[in-house]
From TrEMBL:
<dbReference type="InterPro" id="IPR050362">
    <property type="entry name" value="Cation-dep_OMT"/>
</dbReference>
<keyword id="KW-0808">Transferase</keyword>
<dbReference type="InterPro" id="IPR029063">
    <property type="entry name" value="SAM-dependent_MTases_sf"/>
</dbReference>
<dbReference type="Pfam" id="PF01596">
    <property type="entry name" value="Methyltransf_3"/>
</dbReference>
<keyword id="KW-0949">S-adenosyl-L-methionine</keyword>
<keyword id="KW-0489">Methyltransferase</keyword>
<dbReference type="InterPro" id="IPR002935">
    <property type="entry name" value="SAM_O-MeTrfase"/>
</dbReference>
<protein>
    <recommendedName>
        <fullName>O-methyltransferase</fullName>
    </recommendedName>
</protein>
Amino acid sequence: MRSDGILTSVDVVPEYLESARGAFSKAGFAANRTRLIHGRALEVLPRLTDGAYDMVFMDAVKTEYPAYLQEALRLLRRGGIAVFNNALDAPHPDEGPLGVAAPEAAAVRDVGQLVREDERLIPLMLPVGDGLLAVIRNG
Ligand SMILES: C[S@@+](CC[C@H](N)C(=O)[O-])C[C@H]1O[C@@H](n2cnc3c(N)ncnc32)[C@H](O)[C@@H]1O
């Protein structure tokens, strides 16, 4: 982040937010550099300011990824980046040969299609972990 950047994080588990608060403090970030919001992503994101964010990183409920994309595009400034974790989820032995559970896999595929169809967006698939899909909002 830039020296005047602020990180906003949303989670449904208060203990995780407290853990994050402790980690940021331990890493030397002043309390006013982070904003930790308790709640469900699809209830909190609509309350955040349009065009005010440089990056939106998503790693919560995969079936909600298409809705997160719509929220992220509204929140990002032009040139900002939306990043989806687990975009190339590897097969899991408990979940059969198709890998991730079908509705989750379908939602991740839907994000890919939405990104391909939107001429404002530039996608980049990064081979990190289970795949990071980065989407630049170019318009
Ligand atoms: C895979 S973990 C995120 C891990 C984190 N990105 C990291 O690298 O340490 C998913 C997180 O999403 C949170 N979560 C689950 N459902 C959510 C929702 N509807 N809205 C916001 N956060 C949610 C969980 O509590 C959990 O902390």
